[in-house]
Design a protein that fits this description.
Distance between the termini: 30 Å
CATH superfamily: Alpha/Beta hydrolase fold, catalytic domain
CATH topology: Rossmann fold
Shape: globular
Largest sheet: 9 strands, mixed
CATH class: Alpha Beta
Strand content: 15-25%
Number of helices: 9
Helix content: 25-40%
Low-confidence stretches: 1-31, 293-299
């Protein structure tokens, strides 16, 4: 699933970053410079940040997560990667939109990657996606394989054999996300806000189930190095309710994928779907090991 709840959850920058005419903001952090710019597309504004040193990397957040939420992982990666982060529409400092769908979110990623192509990068970036961001990364890579050096998929893009949300589950999940929306009230107007309604979150999750039912064909179009970092208990470690079924379905999806695509490197962390927040150090280490930092060959 694509929430953070327990139920599922530069150096060397080009001076012309943001030369498309958008305002820039610059902040100094020790010997590293973080630059901020805004992309306008499809009636929304997407905030983009870039900082760090080393191999280029683009980090795509998931549904109900923002680049501010991913701060710890981003800072770890910036030690040896030139990292670009951004917010999807309706998240963080991005503007609200009149539609939230898989294709709309994919359009946000496409717009960011088009801007990244304008940077004077020494090599194509590694594309890292978390949860829904992993699914977006796979779809992007399938259509634009020459623009990336590799993929790292964090607890998403999983060809699960069964949908997570059945008709019988709709009311229960709507209640979960209504609670999530309520919990969002204290962060309204901040870099951690999510502007989607509970119904919009539910609708996107139902759509993602459909997208994942056909994602194996997308993997078949990608000829780049792919690493998956997956949670061993994505829905939590409870043995009650739907949790065991969700966890079994999650593992079965990965097993199905590696049978079809045995070259994909898979790493399991003893965590739930919040692994990017609870195990940021381990996630960063795996990314370094499998994709390599600047001037280093992947292990």
């Amino acid at each position: 699933m694509t929430t953070k709840t327990s139920a599922m959850e530069v150096a060397g920058l080009r001076e012309s970053f943001g030369d498309h005419g958008d305002d820039e903001e610059q902040a100094e952090r020790g010997d590293r410079t973080i630059r901020h710019a805004t992309i306008h597309h499809d009636g929304v504004t997407i905030p983009v940040s870039r900082g760090g040193r080393g191999r280029p990397l683009v980090l795509c957040p998931g549904l109900n997560s923002t680049q501010a939420d991913l701060h710890e992982l981003t800072e770890l990666l910036r030690h040896d990667h030139d990292v670009v982060t951004f917010d999807l529409r309706g998240h963080g400092l991005a503007s609200a939109a009149d539609r939230y769908s898989f294709e709309a979110f994919l359009g946000d990623l496409v717009a960011v990657m088009a801007e990244v192509e304008r940077f004077d990068l020494p090599s194509a970036p590694v594309l890292v996606g978390y949860s829904l961001g992993a699914d977006l990364a796979v779809h992007y890579a399938a259509e634009h394989p020459d623009t990336i050096a590799g993929l790292v998929l964090i607890d998403g893009a999983n060809p699960v054999p069964e949908p997570f949300i059945t008709d019988a589950d709709l009311a229960a999940f709507l209640a979960i996300w209504e609670d999530l929306v309520t919990q969002q009230e204290p962060v309204r107007g901040t870099a951690r806000q999510v502007l989607l309604t509970a119904q919009e979150i539910l609708d996107v999750n139902v759509e993602v189930d459909v997208v994942r039912s056909g994602i194996l064909a997308r993997y078949g179009k990608i000829d780049r190095r792919i690493s998956m970092i997956m949670s061993s208990s994505m829905a939590g470690d409870s043995g009650e309710g739907h949790v065991p079924r969700f966890n079994q379905n999650w593992r079965a999806g990965v097993e199905r994928l590696v049978r079809e695509q045995p070259h994909i490197a898979t790493f399991w962390l003893n965590a739930d779907h919040r692994l990017v927040f609870t195990h940021a150090s381990e996630v960063a280490q795996i990314i370094r090991r499998t994709q390599g930092a600047a001037g280093q060959a992947p292990a």
